[in-house]
Amino acid sequence: MTDHILTEIKDRVLTITFNRPEKKNALTHAMYAVIADALEDAETNDNVRAVLFKANGDAYTAGNDLIDFQQAGATDERNVDELPVGRVLRAFVAAEKPYVAAVNGVAVGIGLTMLLHCDLVYMAENAVLKAPFVDLALVPEAASSLLLPRLVGHVRAAEIFMLGKKISAAEAVQMGLANSVCAADELQKTAGKAASMLAAKAPRSLQMTKRLMRSGAAAMTEQKVQEGQYFGEQLKSPEVMEAIMAFMQKRPPNFG
User: Fold this and answer.
1) How many CB atoms lie within 10 A of CB 29?
2) How far apart are CA 43 and CA 107, in angstroms?
3) Helix and strand tally (H, E) in the chain?
4) Can you list the domains of the chain with their CATH numbers?
5) Are 98 and 198 in contact (CB under 8 A)?
6) For the CA atoms of the chain, what is the radius of gyration?
7) What is the pLDDT of residues 42-99, one digit of tens each?
8) Which of 102, 212, 240, 255 is deepest in the core (most CB within 10 A)?
9) Which residues contact 84 (CB under 8 A, 6 or more apart)?
10) What number of CA atoms fall less than 13 Å from residue 178's CA on the CB side?
């Protein structure tokens, strides 16, 4: 449902709120479609100079809704890049306006990888990052297989992607994945203030600065396309079927 994603433009800040707290803000194709529309509009909307991501409830996002994605993968022959999630990932890679994230709780999968495209990231003390792609027999997305090793080094990225290592808020700051750790009741205020400060800056100067800092967009696009191909293949694989069944049955998967 569209009310699972809330959008508001105020004082030149577009706020995108994940609003499915009863499912820990797990993202569906319908939710991705709303996010994609908002991000695509933001790039050409003069009333938007910064984007703020936040969430309602006690989780930032549990990642993709596995049932929704598995069902869509079984019936939709389109490449992942052509689906709503693909539009969101393209928007992340192509973004020229600054992104700010307020991570209030667990951030799984896309909850972590989207932070690699944010310019400022603030995390609550109890927030935890996790990228269990291999645990679910999938592969990383959002060009994260390029960006994360570049940021934290190969061996740390391997721990996160291959072993599914959880990253605390303090570790995220130490690794360069976040700016600071905030008390839970100060998180939204801190992130909102940062977004407002960005929105008050000279917009073209800010966009050109972000463009310079994110040199290598072509490599990100190429990596994202390769990830999308592998991700789509795995969605239809027996490995993913077993991983999802094991997850639902609360047992270790058996990959033979």
Assistant:
1) 16
2) 25
3) 11, 10
4) 2-185 (3.90.226.10)
5) yes
6) 17
7) 999 999 999 999 999 999 999 999 788 767 655 555 666 678 999 999 999 999 999 9
8) 102
9) 29, 30, 32, 33, 35, 36
10) 29
Q: What percent of the chain has pLDDT over 90?
A: 77
Q: How far apart are CA 175 and CA 187, in angstroms?
A: 20
Give SS3 for 123: strand
Whole-number Å distance between alpha carbons of 7 and 52: 10
116-131 pLDDT per residue, tens:
999 999 999 999 999 9
23 to 34, 66, 111, 173: CA distances (angstroms): 17, 11, 14, 27
CB 182 within 8 A of CB 122: yes
Q: Which residue's structure tokens are 């935890």? A: 128
Distance CA 86, CA 69 (A): 12
Q: CB-hemisphere CA count at 13 Å for 129? A: 30
Contacts of 240 (CB under 8 A, 6+ apart): 70, 136, 137, 138, 234
Region of residue 5 (phi > 0: left; psi between -120 and 50: alpha; otherwise: beta): beta
Distance CA 63, CA 78 (A): 21
Of the candidates 216, 221, 252, 178, which has an alpha carbon nearest to the alpha carbon of residue 81?
221
For residue 16, what are its two tokens?
């995108």
Return the amino acid letter for 178. A
Beta-carbon contacts of residue 222 (< 8 Å; ≥ 6 apart)? none
